[in-house]
Amino acid sequence: MAQALIFLAHGYEEIEMLTIVDLLRRSKIDIDMVSVTDSLGVTSSHNVTIQADVLIKDADFDSAKMIILPGGIPGTPNLLACKTLTNKIKEFAAEGRWLSAICAAPTIYDELGLYQGCKATCYPDFADKLKDAVYVKQPVVVDGIFTTSRGAGTTIEFAAAIIERFKDKQTADDILQKIIYNDTYE
């Protein structure tokens, strides 16, 4: 009964995927890594193969409160090509359940016509593809059901925003402190 589902297609950005999984699990948020391929082993854009928890056909969409999409090329177009995933994304949007994406992946929600004027961010090279969203140049943007972020360098802040949605700001801050994120050295 995962609370969040993160999707892996060949060519995903491994920092964006693994950092989110790690920080959510440290926060006691159940997250499943879901392969959109017919294999649990999915290879990243930098040739790192990770074993997903489940195949998309076995994912528990009913229990999940959030879909998370990591970026990466060709990972993002491969996610968009998965009709099972895009149909579930549309269902989540219609039900008001949370949708999160980072790097190039926020463009998927735009391709599906879901933003309808919401604020969003993404990797700068893809900003022109956000036609229905109001592009905001910030590390993380939370607007309505959407949480979006710019890229690998903003993944920790993105994961913290997701943790805050599920739990609260204190839990997110505690996790950031435990991993020594932005610690000031004396």
What would you say this structure looks like, in words?
The structure is a single chain. This protein has 186 residues and is an alpha/beta fold. It has a single domain (4-178), classed as Rossmann fold, CATH 3.40.50.880. It has six helices and eleven strands. The protein has helices spanning 14-26, 75-80, 83-95, 106-111, 155-166, 169-178, and strands at 4-8, 31-35, 41-43, 49-51, 54-55, 66-69, 98-102, 119-120, 134-135, 140-143, 146-149. The protein has a seven-stranded mixed sheet with strand order 5-2-1-6-7-11-10. Strand 1, helix 1 (14-26) and strand 2 form a beta-alpha-beta unit. The radius of gyration is 15 Å and the shape is globular. The chain starts with a strand and ends in an 8-residue tail after the last helix. 49% of the residues are buried. The mean pLDDT is 96.
Features of this protein?
186 residues, Rossmann fold, 7-stranded mixed β-sheet, two-stranded antiparallel ribbon, 32% helix, globular
Topology of this protein?
Elements: E1 4-8, H1 14-26, E2 31-35, E3 41-43, E4 49-51, E5 54-55, E6 66-69, H2 75-80, H3 83-95, E7 98-102, H4 106-111, E8 119-120, E9 134-135, E10 140-143, E11 146-149, H5 155-166, H6 169-178
Parallel strand pairs: 1-2, 1-6, 2-5, 6-7, 7-11, 8-9
Antiparallel strand pairs: 3-4, 10-11
